[in-house]
Design goal:
Strand content: under 5%
Order of helices and strands: H
Radius of gyration: 54 Å
Distance between the termini: 175 Å
Number of strands: 0
Structural class: mainly alpha
Helix content: over 70%
């Protein structure tokens, strides 16, 4: 049995030493990875700060531009609405004036028709009477 234990003892020692070496190598790589990730995080923070400092004035200018564009478009919309109201009032006035002028022209036409008609009839009557 002792020989069996001795034959198991050497591979176990080798396994232990190999495991310790692999754990140390893995630990070194993990420590290196953590150091690199820490540097990356610091670089990302610096990048974000620099980007934010550069973008803030641009964003403020964009907001100001958008406010100006909104004001301009609302002014144009108001002016177009006022122009539409003016055109509608003008068209209504023209229609009303046309209706008044039309009714007056109709009345004048009736009066002229009566006057001219009587004179025309009397003229025809005189022409007819002069032949007799």
């Amino acid at each position: 049995m002792e020989s069996l234990t001795q034959s198991i003892q050497q591979p176990l020692e080798f396994l232990i030493y190999t495991s310790v070496v692999l754990i140390i190598i893995t630990g070194v790589f993990l420590i290196k990875l953590l150091i690199d990730l820490s540097g990356l995080a610091i670089s990302m923070q610096n990048f974000v700060k620099a980007t934010q400092e550069e973008l803030e004035p641009t964003i403020k200018e964009l907001k100001t531009t958008l406010v100006n564009i909104n004001q301009l478009s609302s002014n144009v919309t108001d002016q177009l609405n006022n122009m539409n109201i003016g055109v509608k009032k003008g068209a209504k006035a023209v229609l009303e004036a046309g209706a008044v002028i039309g009714s007056r022209a109709k009345d004048v036409g009736k009066i002229l028709g009566k006057v001219i008609g009587k004179n025309l009839l009397s003229g025809f009557y005189l022409l007819m009477n002069s032949k007799k």
